[in-house]
Design brief:
By secondary structure, this protein is mainly α. It has 2 domains: about 160 residues, no CATH class; about 80 residues, no CATH class. The protein contains 12 helices and no strands. It is flat. The protein starts with 17 loop residues before the first helix and ends with a helix. About 10% of the residues have low confidence.
């Protein structure tokens, strides 16, 4: 009876290749659902720490921030008119809300870094190098949206509303409503101005191309006006246009961004 030798440690039957080891390492490195929840909890806590520090710092400049944020609304008031508040705690609550918003703005880069740290484990090593561009571009996008809201969109809307002032109608807007409108437009436009950043990373990983965005331009315009109608705080046509026109401009700029960062073959196709 012939004996079949049992394969030793160096036998090809049991010897693992480098690819097998890499696969085992990848499987072992995968995070379970509970690990994802724990990572999410940790990132949220870190982000809250950053916001708390930002809120504390904003209290030292609260009056300057208050004057800066309400300047566009006050500038539209007719002569002799003032902002009013009808609840005893309304003005105090406004200061608290302003400090909270300022704290989130100050901690914005740190918050975006925590977002990146949460999604980074699901990316390949060559994709993780985008952490600095992600934090930088997303922060600049939000600041650009906030600046557009403060210097263009919000003053335009307030001037439009103040134009209905007549000898029989006195324009005396309520403090909480004025600031609430400002915050809604700030958040909406801050998110809208993230469009080039999102397209930048989608083009980098090959999900979208400039050619694809250009081909879908008509559908994009339709979707833009639908989204603008949904996120518009007041629902009037003037405010809708204030949101829609920047989105169309950003979409066109995003096509250029996708063309610049996209694969070279897409640039060659676009020129032919």
């Amino acid at each position: 009876m012939a004996l079949v030798p049992f394969p030793g440690p160096q036998s090809g039957a049991l010897k693992k290749t480098d690819d097998d080891l890499d696969d085992d390492h990848e499987i072992g490195g995968r995070m379970s659902f509970l690990d994802h929840l724990e990572e999410l909890r940790k990132r949220i806590i870190y982000a809250c720490y950053g916001i708390a520090l930002g809120v504390g710092a904003s209290f030292f400049f609260i009056q300057r921030i208050y004057d800066f944020l309400l300047a566009p609304a006050i500038a539209t008031l007719p002569e002799g008119s003032k902002l009013i508040y009808t609840q005893p705690t309304e003005a105090f609550s406004l200061y608290i809300n302003i400090s909270l918003i300022a704290g989130i703005t100050f901690a914005g880069p740190f918050i975006m870094y925590q977002v990146w740290q949460f999604i980074a484990p699901g990316l390949y090593s060559n994709e993780k190098k985008f952490v600095i561009p992600f934090v930088l571009f997303s922060t600049l996008g939000f600041l650009a949206g906030a600046a557009f809201n403060h210097y263009v969109a919000y003053p335009f809307i307030m001037i439009y509303f103040a134009s209905f002032n007549t000898p029989n109608l006195t324009y005396m807007p309520q403090l909480s409503y004025v600031f609430g409108l400002y915050v809604k437009m700030l958040i909406a436009l801050g998110l809208v101005f993230q469009m080039p950043t999102i397209v930048f990373f989608l083009a980098k990983v090959g999900v979208v191309t400039a050619k694809l965005l250009l081909q879908q331009f008509k559908f994009a315009i339709l979707i833009i006006f639908i989204v603008a109608a949904v996120i518009t705080p007041t629902g009037d046509p003037m405010t809708l246009m204030v949101f829609a026109l920047p989105m169309v401009t950003l979409y066109i700029f995003s096509i250029f961004v996708a063309w610049v960062v996209g694969p070279k073959r897409d640039k060659a196709d676009a020129t032919t």
